[in-house]
Each structure stands twice: as C-alpha cells, then as structure tokens.
Amino acid sequence: MTIGVLAVQGAFIEHEHRLEQLGARAVELRCAEDLDQPIDGLILPGGESTAMGKLLRELGMLDTLREKIRAGLPVFGTCAGLLLLAEEIENDTRRHLATMHITACRNAYGRQLGSFFTRAPFADEGEIPMTFIRAPYIASVGEGAEVLAAVDGRIVAARQGAQLVTAFHPELGESTAVHRYFLSMVRESLADGAA
C-alpha cells in the first residue's frame, strides 16, 4: 500500500514515520509530476493552510489533487489539511480543494490557548490522545459527513466517504489509532476497486 504525503510545507515527516511504522509505503509529493505515480491514498499534513494552498496553486497540483479526491482517492487531512479539504471556512474567504461538506473555523482555539493536549473518544477506536496546535475545529458537517470525535462540544474529527479530517495531530503522539483507521479506509477503497 502506497500513501502519498503532501510535502510542500508543514509536518509531513511525522506522518511518513507513522505510515512506515504500520507497514505502508510513504512517498513525498512535492511537484505536479509526483502526482503521476500511482498512490492508494493521500495525506495532507498540518502546517499553514494559506501557504499550502498558495503552493498547491503555484506548483500546479491543486486541480489534479481535487480531481483525484473527487474520483474517490482516500485522503486524510490533519489541522491545515482539514482546512484545505473544507468546503467552507467561517473566518476566511479563501477556498482550496473544497471537496468535503464541512464548515471549518481556522485558528479556532485562539492565540492564547495556542496548543493543548487531551484525550477523547475517536470513532470506534476508544479514547485516544489528541494534540492540538493552533487548531481549527469543524463548526458543522453537511450531507454525507459524519462526526468521529468532539472535544468540549466542538467537532474535531469527521469523515465523508473516503475523506477523513482531524483538527488534532495524531502523528505527534504514540497512538497509531487514527492512521490505522485511515489505512483501513484505504483498504476498503482498494477492495471496492477490485470488486
């Protein structure tokens, strides 16, 4: 199983380590040509969503990625990656990939809180550690999207078909639960393709 990791900006190395730990092959996606290789899934890491969106446009990657995601390529966005996938962003006029029916709120926890750590239930995985760094949250989910986790009444993880987002950084902790969950989504997609 080969997972492309967007490597133009942000915390992509940690995702690569987590994937390798789980037996998946990680390949870095840095330019439009990198999108020509076959990948089974895609990770959009945390970082700075405005910078990442700008780079995706400048490098000619945005439209191709959007087409692949719309065609069913499993994708997992963390923090800034969540903002790249969000159809609406409450406090920002920019839209990037905009493939997921969610409304996000960027830097939602404010500058004062900056980062924090907690534990909360995620999907069917039980309680997992969650690290938030100047994180967004999901203000609402639209048609086809389901809530996978909430902290203090705010949605921090959601799924819509083959798209998964978390406001927190599962690549920074010891738990592999979220990456395992994503790889199971990729396996489902591969099985559907083979059917």
Count every helix, treating DSSP H or I runs of 4 or more residues as helices.
Answer: 6
Mean pLDDT: 92
Return residue spans where pLDDT drops below 50 for at least 5 consecutive residues: none
- Structural class, by secondary structure, is alpha/beta
Q: How far apart are the termini?
A: 17 Å
Number of beta strands: 12
Radius of gyration: 15 Å
- Coarse shape: globular
H-E order:
EHEEHHEHEEHEEEEEEH
Largest sheet: 7 strands, mixed
Strand composition percent: 25-35%
Spatial order of strands in the largest sheet = 2-1-3-4-12-11-10
Structure description:
The chain is α/β, with parallel strands linked by helices and 195 residues long. The protein has helices at residues 12-21, 49-58, 62-70, 80-85, 110-113, 177-194; strands at 2-6, 25-29, 41-44, 75-78, 86-89, 100-105, 115-121, 127-133, 137-141, 145-151, 154-160, 163-166. The strands form three sheets. Strands 2-1-3-4-12-11-10 form a seven-stranded mixed beta sheet. A hairpin with a 2-residue loop joins strand 10 (145-151) and strand 11. The radius of gyration is 15 Å and the shape is globular. The chain starts with a strand and ends with a helix. The model has no long low-confidence stretch (mean pLDDT 92).
